[in-house]
Design brief:
The protein has 637 residues and is of the alpha+beta class. The chain has 28 helices and seven strands.
């Protein structure tokens, strides 16, 4: 096994370390590629691509999380350079012809599936086009990488601050108020970072202050990302056209489960229509609750949503999320989540001391029968210029003889700043992202890096993480770690029942909100960017799929980070949720920690990585094709 501290040490290292690693890896990969062209040995091809991808992944993580600006800048340059090299391989006719000429009849199904997928993706990249076309594809891919990095970097660095009177904290928990004292000018400063933003929007009784913070949040990325996003759309449109597709949305779905641009549009319409009536009922309840405070109110604004939803849940469903926060202390949740995963999948998480890129980062080995399956890193708290959302970042894709490594970047309250009490939604996010970690670690025992980790179709990737969110709704699971920070009392079962009932409220609006995001990502990539009025499209789709009017001046699209990584495919979250709800039917709701279903799920789904089409993995687990029924039942429950 390789030194599992080397990858994190490289992220933690300075600019010179990253540059040196990139140069050395480029030379090594070139050697492997030469061996492959000479011998047709798949191992050489796999090593050429995986070695470059490894350094690219580490550079991406450094760009998103390293505290030093110079290192982040170097990491961006390294990532661009490696992306160029990977593009060159995907566009190399000699590599394609060698792969296509291999006799795979004696190989296993996973190998045949992998090579077939590589050949398909190389054709989609343009390997079979003429020299002039391939040269233009290279140039477009290079500029896309640089522009996408600029788009993400702008979002990550743009934390905005609202200055509000201390009275705006009325309704906020005591620990939040204590952490936000007034400055010398008598004003309190609230940032758009998640640990500030979400509680404030949920609990502050001051509608004007909520509006101020909401508007600041929707202006992140302005003005720089106006040019960055426009250029992304132009580049993608041109690239898709070169490769024979009318739009980027049609191009990018050609190798996904959904299959086409029109299928996305149909799916979005189906889900949005299914949730229409429930969303309308949800909105009517919110408006009625708002009128209890303001009898003249005739509309609910976007900045009212979280606050009014929380009030309805507290007053009509006897569930106040503030009363749950003391049971959800960060460290206890973290330890409890690991204990749950350990029991379900028969592993343990052993803390490891090693060099990391920030003192708050924690490392753990995932161990089974004293064998290290992989290493995970938790970088869980906000800081300046760090990735501002929540995601799993692959570091090393494993295979036989190579240990996988991956990192969670989240922005949860920090125990170093006092009691770090989480919202129930924070816990759900933690479980969700941990599902990605487990997928990455367990799917790394095959022969090839190319089928390891989360290398399934992109629109299935979220299903395993969304499935794990179900465990947050179970009292038997929560009782393992949800204990009052002061008294040690276990979260009462009746509180969990109330929480589940309360969570059902607002479901219709939430689903249609997700369809707004999905429709926005689709429409920006199926319309002609030369005539596209992006703010107008945002307004059109927000008012089509949600009950809210679009406030003048809102520029949500400029901080919608998924427009870079996911481009037209934000639909994948809901597509995966439909599948996740169906997968959940195979588990025992009375014993979610039972090892039988969990073990079978690990063996047939997340343990197989990209060794087969996702639909086949699902069929092997469920004993049938996946269906819409469980999602529909959940939506109507």
């Amino acid at each position: 096994m390789q030194d599992t501290s080397a990858a994190a040490a490289l992220v933690a290292g300075g600019s010179d370390a990253l540059t040196t690693a990139a140069d050395e890896t480029a030379a090594t990969a070139a050697g492997h590629l030469g061996d492959f062209l000479a011998t047709g040995t798949l191992t050489a091809y796999d090593e050429a691509v995986s070695s470059l991808s490894r350094v690219r992944n580490l550079a991406k993580l450094a760009q998103m999380a390293h505290p030093d600006a110079d290192v982040r800048a170097t990491a961006a340059t390294v990532q661009q350079d490696i992306d160029k090299r990977l593009t060159e391989i995907s566009l190399d006719p000699a590599v394609y012809q060698t792969l296509a000429g291999l006799d795979l009849t004696a190989e296993d199904a996973a190998t045949r599936h992998w090579v077939g997928r590589v050949l398909r993706d190389m054709r989609l990249a343009g390997v079979d086009r003429d020299d002039e076309t391939r040269a233009r594809v290279r140039a477009l891919q290079d500029e896309l990488t640089a522009t996408g990095q600029a788009f993400e970097r702008t979002i990550a660095s743009d934390t905005r601050t609202a200055e509000v009177p201390p009275s705006a904290l009325d309704g906020l928990p005591d620990d939040y108020v204590a952490a936000h004292p007034a400055g010398d000018d008598g004003l309190v400063r609230i940032t758009t970072d998640y640990p500030d933003y979400i509680p404030f929007m949920t609990y502050s009784r001051d509608a004007a202050a909520r509006e101020q913070l909401w508007r600041l949040n929707t202006m992140r990325g302005f003005p720089d990302n106006e040019a960055n996003l426009r250029r992304l759309l132009e580049l993608r449109r041109e690239l898709a056209g070169l490769l024979g597709f009318a739009t980027w949305a049609d191009f990018v779905t050609a190798n996904k489960m959904i299959g086409s641009e029109q299928a996305i549009a149909d799916f979005v319409a189906r889900i949005s229509d299914a949730a229409r009536d429930r969303s309308g009922r949800d909105y009517a309840v919110l408006l009625e609750r708002k009128r209890a405070d303001d009898p003249t109110a005739d509309t609910v604004e976007p900045w009212d949503n979280n606050y009014l939803t929380d009030r309805v849940r507290a007053e009509q469903f006897a569930f106040d999320s503030q009363t749950v926060r003391p049971y959800l202390e960060y460290t206890a949740v973290k330890d409890g989540l690991m204990a749950v995963a350990a029991q379900m999948f028969g592993v343990e998480f052993r803390p490891v001391e090693q060099p990391v890129w920030h003192p708050e980062v924690e490392a753990y080995d995932v161990v089974e029968n004293d064998a290290v399956l992989g290493r995970i890193y938790l970088d869980m708290h906000p800081r300046a210029d760090k990735f501002s959302h929540a995601a799993m970042f692959t570091m090393v894709v494993g295979k036989r003889g190579r240990t996988p490594e991956c990192t969670l970047l989240c922005n949860l309250p920090n125990p170093a700043n006092g009691r770090a009490l989480l919202q129930p939604t924070d816990v759900r996010t933690f479980f969700h992202e941990f599902g990605h970690l487990l997928h990455q670690i367990f799917a790394s025992a095959g022969r090839w890096s190319g089928v390891g980790g989360v290398s399934v179709e992109w629109d299935f990737v979220e299903a395993p993480s969304q499935l794990l969110e179900e465990w947050v709704r179970d009292h038997g699971v929560l009782a393992r770690f949800a204990r009052h920070a002061d008294t040690g009392e276990i979260l009462p079962a009746e509180t969990v029942v109330a929480m589940r009932a309360a969570e059902e409220f607002g479901k219709g609006m939430s689903v249609r909100q997700q369809m707004f995001y999905a429709a926005l990502s689709l429409e920006l990539h199926r319309r002609d960017p030369s005539t596209l009025d992006i703010p107008a499209v945002e307004k059109e789709l927000m008012e089509l799929h949600t009950p809210f009017r679009h406030p003048a001046g809102s520029k949500f699209h400029l901080s919608f980070g998924h427009l870079n990584g996911y481009s037209a495919m934000y639909y994948t979250y809901m597509w995966s949720l439909v599948i996740a709800k169906d997968l959940f039917t195979a588990f025992d709701p009375d014993d979610l920690l039972a090892t039988g279903p969990a073990g079978r799920y690990r063996q047939t789904v997340i343990g197989r990585g990209g060794s087969a089409p996702a639909a086949e993995l699902i069929r092997d687990f469920l004993g049938r094709d996946y269906r819409f029924d469980a999602f529909q039942a959940w939506l109507e429950d």
